[in-house]
Design goal:
10% helix; mainly beta; 2 domains; single chain; 4-stranded mixed sheet; Immunoglobulin-like
Length: 199
């Protein structure tokens, strides 16, 4: 092989090796999954499982909460501080979106097929209400980090791509006292945990 081609091939091989080492992979993180037993079960839908004080952040992500059938959908939305939520209106009537919690906000009244947006800068739980329809209620759970999940109707949850380390796994519920458990996450592994939330 000609010396010039050998040099070119060596440079290309070194470049590809460096690129592969620099690229993050899913195996760098672990998964936390399991089940939450909510007692009484009628409060199952108002639950978030999350990790406390995980270092690092991710870029803000746009999220959405709809208004349809005179309900906020999803009823509970888990996001990270800095994320923007688009509040949609797919009902045939006007709606208002506001929250009395934390710094409080009011997006005013908007028509069907319209949307209003709000950026949640502070961690905390925000009740989402409609002043026109006071029976409507939703929640936006704003975490310090993105590692949170809303369990399904059977209580199952999964939090993926968690950096290795030891953390407090916690449960928030709108009506019941949450619980906490210390867990250790290992790269490429899944941690299975069961939690109970009750009065």
């Amino acid at each position: 092989m000609h010396p010039t081609w050998m040099k070119h091939s060596l440079r290309l091989a070194l470049f590809l090796l460096g690129a592969s080492l620099a690229r993050p992979t899913l195996a760098e993180g672990g998964t936390v999954s399991g089940k939450v037993d909510v007692q009484p079960s009628r409060y199952q839908d108002e639950t978030v499982v999350y990790l406390k004080q995980v270092p690092g952040t991710r870029a803000p992500t746009p999220r959405a909460m709809d208004q349809k059938g005179m309900k906020f959908l999803p009823m509970v939305l888990a996001i990270q501080a800095g994320d923007t939520v688009d509040f949609l209106n797919h009902d045939g009537v006007e709606h208002n979106v506001y929250s009395p919690d934390n710094e409080a906000f009011n997006l005013g009244t908007f028509k069907s097929e319209d949307k209003r947006s709000y950026t949640f800068e502070k961690p905390g739980v925000y009740k989402i209400r409609c002043s026109i329809h006071p029976e409507m209620l939703g929640y936006v759970f704003v975490g310090q980090n993105p590692y949170a999940a809303v369990p399904d109707r059977k209580g199952r949850f999964s939090i993926k791509d968690v950096p290795p380390g030891t953390y407090e796994l916690a449960v928030w519920n709108a009506n019941l006292k949450g619980s906490e458990k210390s867990i250790t996450v290992t790269a490429g592994r899944t941690v299975e945990e069961s939690l109970t939330v009750k009065r």
